[in-house]
Specification:
heterodimer, A: mainly alpha, about 0% strand, globular, B: 6-stranded mixed sheet, about 30% helix, elongated
Chain lengths: ~300, ~325
């Protein structure tokens, strides 16, 4: 559409009253408008909804508290070796360990909870306030809706994890400095490689959390109560950790969604121990595929009455 | 009215929806000609919204099928729905976004919408429903009437051939109701077909060219408004200070269903010509201060069709 075509619409748009003739609303020759085959508008709109929402911004603030607390606590106290997560003792040697310590603490509840909130909201939240019926009548194809919703959940999981890492790295480097990093295997790597390793660990965990998000997307298609979906995801997450700690169920452990999460530490070995990380990524991909398809099977012909 | 698919904006065939054991919509054959303003009437709970949800593909019919703008649904939803603006069961928006941001959100999920014209189209739609001044207020802060207007604005973001408006005047004050009626008229003038549902007969009566009446899941009658109304027989109404005498004359002329009220006598005309009644009354020396032939209102018609009032029926 050229600028000349736009002008009449603009003029009527600035007039007042209900009765000022043809406006962009209708036209006598309403032909099908051209279809844009590839567009990221829906996804960008989703991300604006997620990251623009006060509640979620407050949640991001809480996620950032953990690295701040860790860094300050370690700074004002003498770390005692042998206690706490592996990375704690190393924080004073390299500030990047604040990021890794924060990730290992937040993967238990805070980060999965954040993803559970977003995933639980994804479909159930729209159904709850009724906007789902207006999305579907635009129309948004149901498969496209689920694809975009899941893409947004995945991006959120990655961004939230990166946010924790970033805050941890920045505050850690500010308080303890950088430099060479001692690996879990004892060797040392340069600062550039260290940053890369932390980034890889972050992306690995982000993808792990996104697989939990896929479970959340599925549950979100079952209900019109977003809080209920969120709680269900958190329960699944906690149950997975509990089952993972029962030795008698060792046959089950490798299939649990959370089992491989702690393997992100293998990225801090020299050379990187890829075996468990690969299993972790495959497990995450498997959960994403299965639960996205389950969501699709459930949602594609569901009656939308909300 | 013809049965040519191309001439019908909405055509349903035996459309039925059962929820568990309850039949919400029972074999409805809705026929909305292109260019019509179709008043879809019925009390709360009569199945109007369920029918509309099926039309738009939100819920699957238990039986039957339907076409929108000549194309089979839901198979062609992707081609048809971009030409259909809809308001279903009240407005629904994100409460923490402004009215404008909510419309931009709706526009950005529409793969047919041109992002370069979004601002112009959103402002145009807001203006058309008189909401431009409140466009940047949070939806949460909107009154029910403003919310309703925003939902109507949402249907106007793109050129439409069919508008499906479910209870568009809900929550509006009399001025707002008048404006919506006006808007429906102007949309129809632009060439759009409008299907407007209401549980308030009088609100819709004035703008509709066609009506359909739902009752307990069934479509009792439909057609051009004059044709539907013609079903009711005209009644003569005589205003006089001697209603008993007038009633005697009416009865003598062969009018039926004579009703006498203080100052008024009424009767069904049947085949009789109204002028003859006046002559007969005057000849008989009955003082006539007023005389009218009344068609039954839609409400009367509804009562005669259903045997009950325009109330909620479970």
């Amino acid at each position: 559409m050229s600028a000349a075509d736009l002008t009449p619409g603009l003029n009527t748009g600035l007039n007042t009253g209900l009765n000022n003739g043809p406006t962009p609303g209708t036209s006598t020759s309403a032909a099908v408008r051209p279809l844009r085959h590839i567009s990221t508008r829906f996804l960008r709109s989703e991300l604006r909804l997620i990251f623009g929402r006060r509640r979620n911004q407050a949640g991001m603030g809480i996620l950032a508290l953990v690295p701040l607390m860790i860094a300050i606590t370690v700074k004002v106290s003498t770390p005692r070796p042998g206690r706490g997560p592996d990375f704690f003792g190393s924080i004073t040697s390299n500030g990047l360990f604040v990021a890794l310590s924060s990730l290992s603490i937040e993967l238990g509840l805070f980060l999965p909870l954040a993803v559970a909130v977003i995933a639980g909201d994804s479909v159930a939240g729209e159904a709850n306030i009724g906007t789902l019926r207006y999305l579907l009548t635009v129309p948004v194809h149901r498969t496209r809706l689920l694809a975009v919703k899941f893409a947004a959940i995945t991006i959120f999981a990655l961004v939230a994890t990166m946010w924790v890492s970033l805050v941890g790295a920045l505050v850690g480097l500010a308080l303890f400095g950088g430099g060479e990093m001692t690996m879990l295997s004892g060797t040392q790597i340069g600062m550039g490689s260290a940053v890369l390793r932390v980034a890889m660990a972050t992306v690995y965990l982000g993808l792990c959390f996104a697989s939990l998000g896929a479970i959340g997307l599925f549950i979100s298609t079952l209900t019109e109560q977003p809080i209920g979906a969120t709680i269900a995801v958190v329960i699944i997450n906690v149950m997975s950790f509990i089952l993972d700690s029962i030795p008698q169920l060792s046959w089950l452990h490798e299939w649990l969604p959370t089992h491989w999460w702690m393997s992100f530490g293998d990225l801090l070995r020299d050379p990187i121990a890829w075996a468990d990380l690969t299993r972790g990524l495959l497990t995450a991909a498997g959960y994403m595929l299965v639960f996205w398809l389950a969501a699709w099977a459930r949602f594609s012909d569901k009656d939308v009455t909300g | 009215m013809t049965d040519e698919p191309g001439e019908l904006a909405v055509a349903t065939h035996g459309l039925t929806k059962r929820f568990n054991k309850q039949v919400a919509v029972n074999a409805v054959d809705l026929l909305v000609p292109r260019g019509a303003v179709y008043g879809f009437l019925g009390p709360n709970g009569s199945g109007k919204t369920t029918t509309i949800r099926m039309l738009l593909g939100l819920i699957r019919p238990t039986a039957g099928n339907h076409r929108l703008l000549g194309k089979a649904m839901p198979d062609h939803a992707g081609n048809v729905l971009p030409l259909v603006g809809s308001l279903v069961e009240g407005p629904a928006f994100h409460p923490y976004l402004s009215g404008r941001a909510n419309l931009v959100r709706l526009d950005s999920v529409d793969r047919h919408a041109d992002p370069r014209t979004t601002t112009v189209r959103v402002d145009g739609a807001l203006d058309r429903v008189g909401l431009l001044a409140a466009a940047d207020k949070k939806y949460r802060a909107y009154s029910l009437g403003m919310r309703q207007r925003l939902a109507i604005a949402g249907t106007l973001l793109a050129p439409r051939e069919l508008l499906v408006l479910d209870e568009p005047t809900n929550g509006l004050d009399p001025q707002g109701t008048r404006e919506v009626r006006h808007l429906i008229g102007s949309l129809a003038d632009d060439g759009a077909t409008v299907l407007v549902s209401s549980h308030l007969l009088s609100e819709v009566e004035q703008v509709c060219t066609h009506i359909g009446v739902m009752h307990v899941g069934k479509l009792l009658t439909q057609g051009p408004i004059a044709q539907v109304r013609a079903v009711g027989e005209p009644r003569a109404r005589v205003v006089t200070d001697r209603p008993q005498d007038a009633a005697r004359v009416l009865r003598g002329l062969g009018l039926t269903d004579i009703v006498v009220e203080p100052g008024v006598a009424m009767g069904t005309l049947g085949a009789l010509i109204a002028e003859k009644v006046v002559v007969a009354l005057v000849d008989d020396g009955v003082p006539v201060t007023g005389f009218a032939v009344e068609r039954p209102s839609l409400e009367d018609l509804f009562v005669s069709l259903t045997g009950e009032g325009f109330n909620v029926s479970g």
